[in-house]
Structures are given as C-alpha cells and as structure tokens.
Amino acid sequence: MTARILRPLLASYGGGHVQIVAALVRALAARGDSPEVIGFTTAHAELRRQGIAAQPVSALLDPAEDAEWLALAEEFTGAATHPDIPPEETCAYFALGLRDLAHDLGREAALARVRETGRTAFEPVGVMRRHLRRTRPDIVITTTSPRFECALQKAARLEGIPGLAVGDLFLVKDRAWILQEGYAPHLAVLSGEVARALVADGFPESGIRVTGNPAFDRLAPGSGDAARRAALRARLGLADRTVILFPAPGAQMSMIGRPFLELADVVAALEDFCRADPRHAYLIRQHPNRPMALPEGVRHGMLDDGGLLGPEDAILVSDIVCVEASTMGLQAALTGKPVICVGFADYLLYPGFGLGQAASDMDEAMGILRAGQADAAPEFDMPPLGDATSNVLAYVDDILSRHADKVLPNQTDGEPK
C-alpha cells in the first residue's frame, strides 16, 4: 500500500467492463484512497446502482466552450437507445466527440463523418486532456474499450500522467488500439497466454502484468458454496438433476451480424434431450436487455428472468453450460464447469484457449451431451479466482512508485482542444 492517499481516475463503458471498474473502486475506497469515477453510456447508471458515486459523461462538458457542440449534437439524439442512458447524456457524448473531430477535420467534415459512421468516429483526446488538466489525477485507469476510454489513455500519456488499462478477456480485437502509439504504457491482462500474445504483437513486455480479471473475483470458491448450491437447487426443484444452463443473449443479432438462435429452437432441442434422459433439466437465464417467455408445453426446464438467481449463483447451481455469446460461458469454464459454445466459438474466442468445446448448432451440442463428452477445461494459466483486484492494486502501486522520480515527457501538441 502506498503511504499517501491516491487520487486515481477510473472510467469505463458498461457491460462486463464496468464490473472491473466497480471492483477496483470499492477496493481503492476501502483502503482509504479517493477515486474519481466516470461512467460512459450505460456504465453510469450501473455504478450508481452499486452505490458508487460516479459522474456521467456530461461531467466532461464545459458549458461555455461546448454550447455550440451541444446544439449540433441534437441532430444525433433522437429516440432513446437504452433506458440507462438519458437523452441529455447522449447529447453530451456526441457534443464532446464532435468537438474533437471538428478540430481535426473541420466542422462540416466532422458532421458528415458522424452522419456516416455514428459514434465510432469519436476519440476525443482533446476533451480528455482538458479534464485531466483540471483534475490532475495520480493515475488514469480504464478498461480496454475504444473511443472515450482510448482517448482518455492517450490524453493521460500526453499530460505525463501514468495510465493503466485493465483487460477483461483475450484482447484480440482490442489490439487495433492497444498497440497504437500513445496508448497506455501499462496493461493488466487475464492470463499468461494473453500477455505472451500481446508481447509477440509488439506491446512492451515490461508494461504487461498478468493479474486476472477483477470482475471475476466474485467467482472465487468459498467454504459455503456446497451448502448454498444444495439449498438453491432444492428451492428450484433441481436437487436430483444434472442442470444445463443456457444464458440467453441480449439481442436477436450479434455484433458481427450473425443472428442468434430463436428461443423456441433452443427450448425444443433441450426439451428433446431432457425427455430422452430425464435425469437432466435446463435453466434458461434471460438477459436483462431482452425479456422473454418460454413457449407453451415446457416440461423439463425453467426460465430465470433475473429474479431467481444472480449470474454467479446460476453458474453455481448448474452442471453444464451451453452458450452462444455470453461472458457467463467463460466464467463457468473458469470455475471448472463444462462449457459448449454454440455457433459463436470463433467470436467468443475462449474455446480456442481450451475453455470450452465448439458446436455449430444445438443438434451438435446435444450430441456432445448424449455422448457424455462435455468436459471441464484443463487448468488455465491465470491467477487464482479472487486475487485479481488485489493484483491490479499492487500493480497500480508499483507503477506510481516507478513514476515517483520520473515524469513522462509531455508530448504536447499545443493546448488541449
């Protein structure tokens, strides 16, 4: 632990990334540090739900300097896209992105770019430099998302502030910006294999530490797990069954343009399998972004709409996990559960790391189950579950210790925009 109170800035987008930041913020506050937290898009509401006093993206605005951009951003803030994102936050997000883009391209070209590509056009380094010059945190900590997170890391480097990016999974697609010049000089990653792959692609080995993922610390085995599993399974009427968990995706279409399975087809395959072998039952876990209902006539399974079990308990009660594109598949594999990835093994990537088996469709997945070939993953080159948050904080302290007598050169390109 460092001798003085630290003032780190942490920021992320939502999904699994915000859970990393939430774990780190709680640990920093618990040891007496004073973190500043910014939640981009859905992350702000999620952090608030967890009792973390995060700021929204609008906290980055300067009312006087950004009035023009707020007016222009109204063009892009029509129908609400998510219940966790108020229209005024969408307007602030586009205003800040436009402000920087117009500095680089000119106003009309920036507007044309955003009309064509949307928010993917944004990387507001100037906006982030402006905020960092006002607040001067000791270190900037983000996850490895693009756009605003990437801009914040680049801004920190330009301002001579240490930056640490904390990876969630395998960082394959993320390498497009992780390996850019000016990105965070320090990276915390899930496993030794991820670290070796990044070094092979050009990231300095001295800047990588294998820490695990802080969001997965809640999966660490506990002394009461067996009793809790038995109690939950008894409450659900599953005490004597082999339970197949299917975490449903949050949309009809994946981010790579490939449609997810229809719920009716998933249920039909699981019903057929469990009818033939009634020692099995299935549990479909609804994604919070996509309400659903089971078809009529279900006999061997149930739906958890989020009111029965949390994600960790859903994994705890299950014996096998079939998944399309959910991080819960990876979480289950890391806890030693057999995992079958249906249709998206090439997108999820973790079957390629030995953390799950691949099936092209539900028929092939059920064939693996019928053959008794659903096997748990071998040992994975990752720190023990439960240690990641403390590992990342130890890395933060080491980074700041190394920077105590060394200041990064301010690679200034003029005043921040």
Automatic annotation (TrEMBL):
It comes from the Bacteria. This is UDP-N-acetylglucosamine 2-epimerase domain-containing protein.
